[in-house]
Structure formats: C-alpha cells, structure tokens
C-alpha cells in the first residue's frame, strides 16, 4: 500500500510561529504551540452554512477549529476530562454559532454546547457522566437532533434544548450506541448502531426493532449512511466489514473486495457527485469503490477514523486520521494533503538536544515510536519517515550530545537503542558495566650480593593497576536516560531499578554511581544547568546529592514520600536554593537539602507539576493547575504569567542549559510548547 500524501504542513508552519489565529492577539511572550503537528484526529464536522469552518476532535479532550477550510487550526477551550476523547461533533445546521460536542472519559463523558462559536462551553444536564458517541440532525427537520450514548438513544426536537431518551432503558442491547442516522426524508425513521448489531425505529422511538439479517453476528456497527436520493438504500460499516441494504435494513448484504485485514471499517460514505462511488475508512487505510463495492482501490494506508464531504465543494473530502491528523483531498482521494498547521494531538515523551538540533520522541505512534527533529530551536518540527529498527518498539526516553547531532541513545522500558545517523536507523545494544578489579601487588624481595655489605633486589617495586572487566548488565526496568554536560564533556546517565550508571563514550561503557547505603533503584536525575558537577538523584526512598559529577553522594532527607515528588530544579548559581515540585506545593532548600521550607508566596499548597530554573539568573518557572508561574527571587515569591491558553496540560518544563533564551514545555496531547 502506498500513501499518496502531499506534505504541506512544514511550509505553513514556517509562516506562522505563533500557531493559529489566537497568536495574533496573544501576549508577546505567550506560549507558542509548535507541534510536532499531526497525531490522532477522532472525528470532524463542517458548518453547513459556512463550509470554510471545520471542527476536528482528538484525544486528550482536544477540540480544534479552522475558519479557512483546514489551512490552519486553533484550539478551542473545551473542558478537560480525565482520559477525555472527543467522539462526536455537530454544528447546528440552522445556527453556525451553536456547536455540540460529544465526549467519552474515565467517568462516562457528556455533551457540551457552545452558543458563541466555541468561546464558552456548558455541559448539558441531560448528559452528565453520560458518554456520547454519535450526533446527527434530521435533514428534513433541522431542529431535530439525535444522540447515541452509552445509555441509549436520546432525541431533541428543539435544537438540543431538551432531550428525551427514546430507546427502552430496559433493553441492555441498546445501551452502548455507537452510531446514529436519520432518514433524509422521514425524521421518524432513525437508525442506531450498537456494539452488537443495528436497530431501527420508524415512529421516532416509540418502538425499535433489531435489523441484523445477513450481518455477521456480534458486529460492532461504527457508522450508518443513508443514500439521500434513495433513502431505502442504507450502508453500515462494522468491525466485520461493510454492509448494504436495499430495504432500510430488513436484509443486509456484505460487500466483498476489501482484504480481510482491512475489514474493520470505521466510516462509510457515498460520493455526493459520482453516484455509486463509495469510500470506506478502515484501520488499514482509505478505500474507494467506483461501483458500489464491486471492487476497491486503496488510496492510503493510514487509518481513517471519520470523513466528511465539503457541502460547498462536494469533490473535497476531509479525513480524520490516526497519527497523521487531518487530511484533505480534492481529487477523490488520489492525493491527500495533510492539513495540520496548528493541529496537534501528540503525547511527546522526551526531548533532547543533539548538536544544533532538537529531537523529540512520541512513544506510542501506532506500532512504533515517532521521531521528530527541529533545526530551528523547536519553532517547527519534521517527522523522520521510514525509520528502521523500531518496529514494535516504544521508546520512552532519548539522549543526545551537544558536540554532534548524529549519535542518539534511547531506551524502551527494558532495552537500550542507539542511532548513529540522527535517528533514521536504530540498533539495540546491551549496556556493559565497567568493573575494576585490583591486581595483586608485586612483592619486592631483597637478597645479599656476593661481596660483603652489598644487597640487590630481585624485582623492582610496581604500583598495582586495576584490571578492567566489562560485565553486561542484566535486563532491568529503565526509568530514564539523561543527557548532561559536566566540565565541558558530554555524559549520559541511565536510571534503572539496579541503580544509576554514567557513560562518557555514548553508551559503550557505563560506570555505576555509588550512592551508598546499598541503594537500589534510581528513578530520576536532575542536573545543574551550569555543568559544574552538581546533580540530584531520586530513589523510591530519598534524594541523593553529588557535587563532583557523581563520584561522591550524600543522602538528604525530604519531608514527603518520593511518590509525591514531581520535579526538582537545580540553579545555575550554587548559592540559590533547590526547588522541588510536589503534590502538595513547592518546597525549597537553601543548603543542598539539609533543611526544607514549604511556603512559597503566590503558589497554593497544591499540586505543582513542574519546576525549573531559567538562565543564569534567579528566575524560575513552575506549573500549577496547568498555569505558568514565575519567580525572580529563586522561588521566594511567585506570580501568574498571563496566557491566552488556559489550563494547559503541561507535564514537564525543559531548559537545555543555562545559556538558553527559550523555555519549553512538554504537554499531554498538545505536543511541545515554547515561549521566548
């Protein structure tokens, strides 16, 4: 299978450092969303009254809007939910400012509405903790909406103001609704797909009947499509393939032609211009049939989760795709442009510097790891394609070197990998610990000479030299790789369940850091940005401080369990305090951990998720509840930094060294942010 993609997003990104229209009015020093653009798009919707407006949903409670037909995207401030996924979107066909967004989350989900084009949102009370998977409006009665939820089918006859459940609450087969569709000419005829076959009502929900004759039993129905010209013709896509019915679902016929591995079909649509041409979005890509399923042509191998035709330009198709974001085609799918400028749904795991480049990894990019490179300090990113050696491998951490950009060392949960060509190809390797064994000292024997008073030595005195042994480390859990520069030399630190190891030769040989006290696992490492040899290791029990590149360590007590610690910041100036971000606020120590203080003016005694020093001054930054705070007195007092992006899901703050003038943030879902 060949992807027919036209990659247009790097050019668009270069034209807009402050990604999206929001940046035009944002504060000068606001966060910039830099990507890497793309990721998983779950669903989308087009405004029928203004087709240049397109909404796209994603994982991590992310919702994006484009007002220029997908050329650029901005984030909408949809409420964030634990494990939230935007599963359904609809723009009111009679009111362009009325958005309806269905969501699934860890507690169920809900239906959110906005009446001002996405500026403000409210949860409809009828959907509190009720997951919504599908929304549709009746073509012949635009004020009639139908929602498919985890608790059944709900109907509104007044544009979403009031909702009534129209499926039998005692019919457990109709609890988990996965798809809905309304007859284009008769709004009383409603179809509902479930995780176990489809249903139909012909009287607006008064009665329902199972319509599954001819369909493979236990088929998850993902979408239902009704021919707008011949409403008796119905298509259904399911985990078992594609079905068509000439009689409103009384009997289904399975369409052949798509390979077995591609039959899990998320969405089915008919070309609005070319009668009989149908498109299928499957786990294995986009397929097109010119003869209603007689035979098929594969258009792209990227999973398609949803598709929609532009009502103003019916030849244009928008695609919500797995890993690649939003695609658009104006030639029936033969070529697909990636329209992702400003759209990002990526869980970046780690960020490192390699020479003049930055390298980022996305742990879960399908069955492999995504490798992304920036040559302009993180302003824009490009994905390395056709990466070799990472099939089935999910890297979690990566380390590069300041002196050159070709060598990278990375780690999956229990294996190390190395690349010597900038991340294009990777090979696994075994870490080898350097063991020094002292040689037995040579004995000096003195014996008399032949003439009186004279002595001689049978062997000269020698200084004992240790014997070097390289011992492969047994497989163990790897908690992180850390790039550091101390004394003008590049090092890599490896934190494992067996301890902390340091390498100064790109991972060929490793020396164990002797923390003392029989310490085992080391779960994190924090390094001075000035490269003066100071570092702090985190173990499950305590912190350990070193002031000499890890040669000697001292255990320091901390008033909280290590499980409550999120991050630690060392200042460039040794006289400034250590700062620790915890579950219950920010702690500081002016004496390398001997004493700790919990009071930080301007921050609440609540979760601080990240903290870092910035540059050579006393400036520090911290994240609390997704908001950025700044201190200019080494963490003594803090003030909120204004941003047009509220409650950002920032997991980690990153500064490559004390000479940088750019602050980076790694988020949950929104990729990488930066601010100058």
Overview of this protein structure:
With 676 residues, the chain is an all-beta fold. The chain has a five-stranded mixed beta sheet with strand order 1-31-30-29-28, with no helix packed on it. The protein has a four-stranded antiparallel beta sheet with strand order 2-62-61-60, with no helix packed on it. Strand 61 and strand 62 form a beta hairpin. It is elongated, with a radius of gyration of 30 Å. The N terminus is likely disordered.
Low-confidence stretches: 1-28
User: What characteristic shape results from the CA principal axes?
Assistant: elongated
Order of strands across the widest beta sheet? 1-31-30-29-28
> Looking at the chains present, what oligomeric state does this protein adopt?
single chain
| Average pLDDT level | 90
Largest sheet: 5 strands, mixed
Kindly report how far apart the N and C termini lie: 43 Å
Strand content bin:
35-45%
Number of strands: 62
Please compute the radius of gyration using only Cα atoms: 30 Å
Number of helices: 1
Structural class: mainly beta
Helix amount, in percent? under 10%
């Amino acid at each position: 299978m060949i992807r027919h993609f036209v990659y247009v997003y790097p050019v668009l990104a270069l034209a807009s450092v402050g990604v999206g229209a929001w940046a035009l009015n944002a504060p000068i020093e606001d966060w910039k969303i830099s990507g890497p653009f793309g990721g998983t798009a779950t669903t989308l919707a087009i405004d029928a009254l203004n087709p240049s407006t397109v909404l796209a949903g994603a994982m991590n409670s992310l919702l994006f809007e484009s007002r220029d037909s997908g050329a650029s995207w901005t984030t909408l401030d949809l409420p964030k939910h634990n494990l939230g996924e935007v599963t359904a979107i609809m723009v009111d066909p009679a009111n362009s400012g009325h958005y309806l967004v269905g969501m699934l989350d860890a507690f169920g989900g809900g239906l959110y509405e906005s009446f001002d084009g996405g500026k403000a949102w409210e949860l409809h009370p009828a959907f509190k903790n009720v997951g919504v998977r599908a929304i549709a409006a009746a073509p012949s009665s635009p004020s009639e909406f139908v929602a498919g939820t985890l608790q059944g089918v709900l109907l509104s006859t007044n544009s979403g103001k009031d909702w009534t459940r129209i499926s039998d609450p005692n019919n457990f087969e109709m609890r988990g609704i996965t798809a809905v569709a309304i007859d284009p000419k008769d709004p009383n005829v409603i179809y509902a797909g479930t995780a176990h076959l489809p249903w139909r009502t012909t009287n607006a929900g008064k009665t329902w009947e199972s319509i599954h004759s001819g369909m493979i039993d236990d088929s998850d129905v993902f979408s239902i499509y009704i021919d707008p010209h011949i409403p008796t013709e119905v298509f259904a896509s399911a985990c078992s393939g594609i079905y068509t019915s000439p009689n409103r679902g009384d009997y289904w016929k399975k369409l052949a032609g798509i390979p077995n591995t591609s039959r899990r079909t998320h969405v089915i649509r008919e070309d609005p211009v070319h009668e009989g041409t149908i498109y299928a979005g499957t786990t294995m890509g986009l397929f097109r049939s010119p003869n209603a399923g007689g035979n098929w042509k594969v258009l792209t191998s990227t999973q398609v989760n949803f598709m929609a035709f532009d009502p103003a330009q019916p030849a244009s198709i928008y695609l919500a795709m797995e890993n690649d974001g939003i695609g658009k085609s104006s030639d029936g799918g033969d070529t697909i442009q990636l329209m992702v400028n400003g759209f990002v749904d990526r869980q970046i795991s780690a960020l490192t510097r390699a020479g003049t480049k930055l390298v980022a990894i996305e742990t879960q990019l399908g069955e492999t790891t995504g490798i992304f490179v920036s040559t302009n300090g993180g302003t824009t990113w490009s994905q390395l394609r056709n990466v070799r050696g990472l099939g089935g491998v999910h890297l979690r951490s990566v380390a590069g070197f300041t002196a050159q950009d070709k060598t990278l060392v990375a780690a999956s949960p229990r294996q190390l990998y190395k690349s010597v060509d900038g991340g294009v190809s990777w090979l696994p390797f075994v870490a080898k610990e350097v063991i020094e064994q002292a040689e037995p000292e040579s004995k000096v024997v003195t014996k008399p000479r032949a003439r009186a008073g004279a002595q001689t030595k049978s062997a000269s005195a020698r200084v004992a030299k240790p014997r070097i042994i390289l011992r492969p480390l047994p497989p163990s859990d790897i908690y992180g790789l850390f790039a550091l520069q101390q004394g003008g030399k590049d090092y890599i630190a490896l934190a494992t369940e067996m301890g902390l190891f340091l390498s100064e030769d790109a991972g060929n040989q490793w020396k164990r850091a002797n923390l003392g006290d029989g310490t085992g696992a080391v779960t994190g490492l924090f390094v001075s940005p000035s490269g003066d040899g100071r570092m702090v290791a985190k173990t499950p029990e305590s912190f350990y401080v070193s002031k000499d590149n890890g040669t000697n360590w001292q255990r320091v007590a901390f008033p909280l369990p290590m499980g409550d610690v999120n991050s630690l910041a060392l200042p460039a100036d040794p006289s400034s305090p250590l700062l620790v971000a915890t579950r219950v606020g920010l702690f500081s120590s002016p004496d390398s951990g001997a004493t700790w203080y919990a009071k930080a003016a301007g921050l609440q005694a609540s979760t601080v998720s990240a903290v870092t020093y910035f540059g050579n001054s006393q400036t520090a930054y911290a994240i609390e509840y997704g908001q950025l705070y700044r201190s200019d007195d080494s963490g003594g007092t803090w003030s909120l930094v204004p941003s047009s992006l509220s409650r950002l899901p920032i997991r980690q703050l990153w500064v490559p060294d004390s000479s940088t003038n750019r602050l980076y943030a790694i988020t949950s879902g929104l990729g990488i942010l930066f601010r100058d």
